[in-house]
Amino acid sequence: MHNHYRTSALELMMDIMPAIRQLVVAIAKHDRNLADEAKRAATSVISNHAEADGVRGGHRRERIQTAQGSLTELRSQLKLAAAWGYVSREQIDRVDGHLDRVAAMTWRRLTPAG
Q: Which of 9, 29, 88, 98 has the fewest CB atoms within 10 Å distance of its CB?
């Protein structure tokens, strides 16, 4: 909240959610388990960034690390869906560019400048 990166990572993730939802719906037509895991990972990124904004100390870092792990998981699941042919690589690449920005913002939360 008082740190631009926190708000921006959360807001960017919320902004990209409609596109992620479309991908999850398309994936679910072929693989419900993969779609569910992608949905839960995306939800976890948002939930953990939001929770990190409301806690202090070590718990904040834990939530950010969990968001980072869930983001990595989501990106892998989307790429896997493209590898299986459930969605196109181009569809994933359009979303992944935004997810790369979320990843950079999340990293900055873990490694703040001096």
A: 29
User: Which two structure tokens, joined as six digits, stand for 75?
Assistant: 């990106």
Q: For residue 69, give both structure tokens.
A: 């792990």
Mapping DSSP to helix (H, G, I), strand (E, B) and coil, where does residue 30 land?
coil
Residue 49: CB atoms within 10 A of its CB come to 30
Q: How far is CA 38 from the centre of its chain?
A: 9
Residue type, 95: V
Task: Give per-residue pLDDT as tens, 23-62.
Answer: 999 999 999 999 999 999 999 999 999 999 888 777 999 9
How many CB atoms are located within 10 Å of the residue 92 CB? 21
Please give the residue range of the domain that contains residue 83.
Answer: 4-110
Q: How far apart are CA 110 and CA 88, in angstroms?
A: 32
What torsion do the CA atoms of 39, 44, 49, 52 make, to the nearest 10 degrees? 170
Q: pTM of whole model > 0.85?
A: yes
> In the chain, how many domains are there?
1
